[in-house]
């Protein structure tokens, strides 16, 4: 009988060891998945359903990684360089940079600025003009230049519509 108890105990110990090993393996696999997910999250700034849910509950503690300003590189230029170049362009011409790009596509009238590192001929900057004077600008960068422009148009249109409701 003593032998049976020892064997049963040994069997249980072996089973527990196997369980523990399986748990450790599962934990390592989960950790690898989490690490891969974190690495992917660094590259992916899109806001998914889980992000929306956590944000609405007030418990999304990593939302800053997806919202706000993030330095990006486009065509070898850092994001802040693109913003500066868009700002310089909109301040020089006092026109939306998407309009400048469209006119340049048709007539090449702004071609001399395409090789100038201070300016950029693409959409994404919009002047704020009050009483025929430019008081500032709205600048978006990080998407395709027509999408940058469309974000500005959508936001300013919504602002205008809400302002007129009052």
Task: Walk me through what this model shows.
This protein has 166 residues and is mainly alpha-helical. Helices cover 59% and strands 10% of the residues. The chain has 5 helices and 4 strands; from the N terminus they run H-H-E-E-H-H-E-E-H. The chain has helices at residues 2-43, 49-57, 79-93, 97-107, 145-165; strands spanning 73-74, 77-78, 125-130, 133-139. The strands form 2 sheets. A two-stranded antiparallel sheet has the order 1-2. A two-stranded antiparallel ribbon has the order 3-4. Strand 1 (73-74) and strand 2 (77-78) form a beta hairpin. The longest helix has 42 residues, at 2-43. The chain is globular.
How is this structure best summarized?
Helices cover 59% and strands 10% of the residues. With 166 residues, the chain is mainly alpha-helical. The protein has a two-stranded antiparallel ribbon with strand order 1-2. Strands 3-4 form a two-stranded antiparallel sheet.
Question: What descriptive keywords fit this protein?
Answer:
166 residues, mainly alpha, two-stranded antiparallel ribbon, two-stranded antiparallel sheet, 5 helices, globular, disordered N terminus
> What structural category arises from helix and sheet content?
mainly alpha
What distance separates the N and C termini?
90 Å
The low-confidence parts are: 1-11, 27-42
User: Over all CA atoms, what is the radius of gyration?
Assistant: 28 Å
| 3D shape | globular
Query: What is the string of SSEs from the N terminus onward?
Result: HHEEHHEEH
- What percentage of amino acids are in beta strands? 5-15%
The description of the largest β-sheet is: 2 strands, antiparallel
Q: How helical, in percent, are the residues?
A: 55-70%
DSSP, total strands: 4
Spatial strand arrangement across the major sheet: 1-2
Number of separate helices: 5
Average pLDDT reading: 75
């Amino acid at each position: 009988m003593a032998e049976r108890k020892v064997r049963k105990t040994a069997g249980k110990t072996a089973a527990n060891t196997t369980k523990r090993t399986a748990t450790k393996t599962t934990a390592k696999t989960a950790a690898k998945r989490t690490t891969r997910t974190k690495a992917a999250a660094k590259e992916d700034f899109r806001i998914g359903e889980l992000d929306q849910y956590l944000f609405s509950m007030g418990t999304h503690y990593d939302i800053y990684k997806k919202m706000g300003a993030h330095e990006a590189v486009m065509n070898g230029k850092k994001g802040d360089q693109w913003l500066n170049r868009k700002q310089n362009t909109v301040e020089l011409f006092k026109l939306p940079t998407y309009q400048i790009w469209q006119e340049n596509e048709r007539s090449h009238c702004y071609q001399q600025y395409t090789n100038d590192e201070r300016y950029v001929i693409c959409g994404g900057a919009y002047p704020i003009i009050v009483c025929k004077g430019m008081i500032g600008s709205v600048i978006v960068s990080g998407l395709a230049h027509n999408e940058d422009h469309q974000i500005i148009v959508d936001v300013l249109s919504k602002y205008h519509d809400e302002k007129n409701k009052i």
